[in-house]
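Structure tokens please, single chain.
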Amino acid sequence: MKKLLEHIKKQQEARAEEQAKLEAQKQKNILEAERVYKLEEQRIKEREQKEKEVATAKRKKLQEDAWNKKINEGMALVENKIKKEIDNNQNLSSILKDEEARQAVILEREKKRQVRLRISREAKAREEKERKNKITQLLKTRETMEEVYPDVLSWESWNENPINKQIFLLDKDLAEDLYYDDREYAARYKRTKGSKKKQPTTITAFAPSDLSGLNVWMDADFASSITLDGDNVIQWESRIHDVDMWADMGGPDPEGNVPAKPFWGAQTAVSNAPSYVDHPSGKKTIQFDENNNERLDLGISTSDGTSNDEGWDWYDGIQGGSGKYPAFTMFFHGNMASNTMNYLLDIRHPRSLFYYASGDNTINIFRDGTHAATASISTGEQLWTFSNVESPKFITSYTLTAEATNPGMLSTASADLTLQTLSNGNDDINSSQINLSGSFTFNGTIYSTSFMNSNGFMTLGSAFIGSSHNNTQLDDQNTNVVLAPWWDDLVVESDGAQAHYFANDKYWIFQWHCRRYGTDGVKIRMQAVIYLDNHSTQPGTVEFRYNEIENTTFNADTDASVGVKGDTSALTADNPTYIHWRDFALDSNKYASGLQTSHNTENYWPANTSPTYGPGGPYYYKFSPTVQEEKHKTKIFVDGLEGSSNFCTEVVDLGNYFTEHREQVLGGRYDYSATNAFGGTMNEIIVYDRILTDDERAKVETYLADKWGTTVATRSVG
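Here you go.
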């Protein structure tokens, strides 16, 4: 009986102990849930405060700009009205009365706009409140992790849960945090309480060669790629073309040849050669001492297998002859010592520089005379990723579309701003300056102002200089930048000319009503439409639109021009790169000879549908630039976190540069200046001949971080 009682007592104690453990785990889960909830609540408050501050500042700036603009416009219109009415012996009081009425209309529009803004803000606030409430309810209804996530392995499987998917749609950052929390819990659960033992799976480790486009892979820990003189590195070869790597990638080429190692860095002077030292991870790394001006000259292998130190052929060798706008993604992993300006890699011509500046603790890309990107970094061992396309956002390559269906002219009734730029009877004059309320890039140059001319064309940047009625000198070398829907010797008709701005859609309509000079015959209406750089679908685009001719009395002596012209002041006759005079009717670029200006109204007016007076059409022209996408920006990532993202401001063409001045240096300036020597360690350098996707970039960054014992902001999942 005594043994039975002791046994019962032990069972009771065991149950009590188990109950205590369960209660402790329950309390831990409750505390964890409260922590997640508080963090999310804090994140929401911070985001709301930041959005509120940004919105307040933006609203204040927009209000100030709008009022200043309206004041300037009002003053200009008042002056023009007064001058015109005095010239026509009209009553000054009538002018002031009309102006007061116009100002009243402007104020009424502003009041309506403010009401729309207030309604929009209230709607957004309601949506944000509903989003927060949904997130709160979803967090409350999430099932316990023991029941749902005992084997969380991938993002895809986690996101199949309906509640998780809803949270992801509402707040991606919160979903990612929850996923990693669940994944960490699942790992602990499998170690301590998992009842099913899974069969081990074979996981193939990622290697940089798994991605296409790998052209340089400098690995300091890859012993066979290092040539030493004592403890000094006198040559560091890329392992992408070594025998073992080619075997891993499928063996030799079809002819059985194993390529030589084409990319390397070498140093013939041992006193300037970096050292081969131990890395804290147990691997080997290359140590550069800036005080000794230690560096490696970059070189390639020649066709006969011999080597030289005349640089890497970036255009053909690394970037695969990728045309006028080459792209690459470069990874540097190492430790940057403090110095005024550490040069990681310097190329003399065209000047291409990747360097660290200790003054502001930044890592930089310097391309052909200008900074392409700058990002702040921290101290210690890090990973820098350079993603670079050497071109501006708007490439000076245009597509001309000529439509045979007349879409007619765009309506101007709902314009947010209308400027009467020219009046009835105006002849051979420019309008006042028109501020574009944003930037418009044409032929590689950014413009913020424009001018209308009474002869059926407009200019960008400055008013037309010269005899504007004479359109036969379009091929002269001058600075006039012209958009001409119908350039001829014209006189402004009764409805005048106007500029209309649509703020929400970010475009301008410039509209003319004109007749041929010296006749009361042909009367025409036309529009030039420009889409600003921040337009959502067709930034930098020009459209010409036309109405039918208003009567059938034609003047056969017209010699109009239809097209566009860039700044030709610094160009030569045989330079085909930029727009000199693009003739839309003939779809050709002209310069110095063969200029077409004999487009008469009978045969060439774009909206002429009468077969009696010519072929008719096309009825509409559209001139669209090649526009780079977000992925084509020059970017710098520091430990996986984006620190800079910009479009280049200049075109860099590498195609004709690998002939002379090939000086390229790893760890120093191209001219060996001691003040710019690199100080620190270089662990690994990887270069692809293309822009990697975010997922691909994360894979390489995760590979480097895991290998060299650092962390990255966004790890590769799975």
